[in-house]
C-alpha cells in the first residue's frame, strides 16, 4: 500500500508541473523573493471546520510566510489526509484539463462554486484508498485541494468536503483580493 502522505504530495505537485508544460507563449511566473509574503491557502481553511467537514479531528501544518504549506493530518488512523496548494496560471482550468486528457478510471465533475470562474473535482480510487482532487479558479489563481482517504471511505462525504473546501478557498481569495 503506498504511503498516503507521498501520494498526497504527488497530487499537490501535479498542478505546478502541468503549468510548466506546453507552449512557449507563456513565460513561467517569477519566483518570489525569500522575504516576500506568499499566499497560503491554509489562511482560508480552519482546522475545526476541515475536521468537521471531512469527519475527524485534524492537525494543521501551514509552514511559514516565506514557505507556505497547507496540510491537514487526521489525529485518528484511517481518516483522510488533506492538502491545499495554488498556482498562478493565466491559461485557466480548461487548458490544464486539455493537457491532462481523458482518464480511464477517474471521474471529473464541474461543481458550482460561488464566486469562482471555474471548478473541477476529480474522483478516483483503487483497492486501498479514495483520491479526490478539487480545482477552483479565481482569475489567474488556481487553488487545489487533495484528499486521500483509506478504505473504508465515505466517497460522498469526501467529495462534498472537497467541494466545500473549494468554496472556502474561493471566498478567501476574493476577500483577500488575490485573484
Q: If you had to describe this structure to a student in words, what would you say it looks like?
A:
The longest helix has 21 residues, at 155-175. The termini are far apart. The protein contains four helices and seven strands. It has helices at 4-20, 47-54, 92-100, 155-175, and strands at 58-63, 68-74, 81-88, 107-109, 118-125, 129-138, 141-150. Strands 1-2-3-7-6-5-4 form a seven-stranded antiparallel sheet, sandwiched between helices. The chain has a single domain, classed as 3-Layer(aba) Sandwich (Protein Transport Mog1p, Chain A), CATH 3.40.1000. It has 179 residues and is of the alpha+beta class.
Strand order of the largest sheet: 1-2-3-7-6-5-4
Helix share bin: 25-40%
Shape: globular
Point out poorly predicted stretches.
Answer: 1-24
Please trace the helix and strand order, writing H or E for each element: HHEEEHEEEEH
Named at the architecture level, the CATH assignment is: 3-Layer(aba) Sandwich
Radius of gyration, rounded? 16 Å
Instruction: Please identify the oligomeric state.
Output: single chain
Termini separation comes to 38 Å
